[in-house]
Amino acid sequence: MPDPATIRKRKRLPHWEAPRSIYFVTFRLADSLPASVLQKLRIERRAALDKATRDAEPLSPAEQKRVRRLISRRVEDYLDKGSGSCCLANPALAEVVAGALRHFDGVRYKLYAWCVMPNHVHVVFEPHAGFSLAMIAHSWKSFTVHRINAASASPGVFWQREYYDHLIRDGEQLRRAIQYVAENPLRAGLKEWKWVEVSKLD
What we know:
Elements: E1 6-10, E2 13-17, E3 22-28, H1 35-53, H2 61-80, H3 91-103, E4 109-116, E5 120-127, H4 133-150, E6 164-168, H5 171-187, E7 196-198
Antiparallel strand pairs: 1-2, 3-5, 3-6, 4-5, 4-7
Helix pairs in contact: 1-2, 3-4
């Protein structure tokens, strides 16, 4: 079990972090969800919050987290349909991201599973002492955007600023997270997809 979690505020909802813990993180391309889809998701989120709070007290952080996870599943459904430029389907660009994930495996963090999809990236990992979730996620995004923009004829915003993260609480959640990442290409209809890797659990 992870140590007691601390709450880190980021934009609208709290995010949970704890020392010596494992996280499931998703970050996506800036153009991966059209404005119309984002607006629809905002409406769905507002409706879910309104329904949960109707005739009741304000939602607790745990209840807010459940609503957030519900909406995150909707986001995943849209992403797997292949919206946006999907430029990570380009093997050279996918390799830049895969290389960044692998680079500090065993040094700054332990990788359990990762997958570079055409328009988003999933990672299940455990930060080592001295390296926070936010620090690691920022380094992945910063390194890859500089490498990719340097090779592009029209550099610009590449990653969506925000990312989704989930604090894994137990072995069963870890197993499910790894399975989700490993099976993501098949769920999205990508056969013989090269950009996915799962490590054996100790």
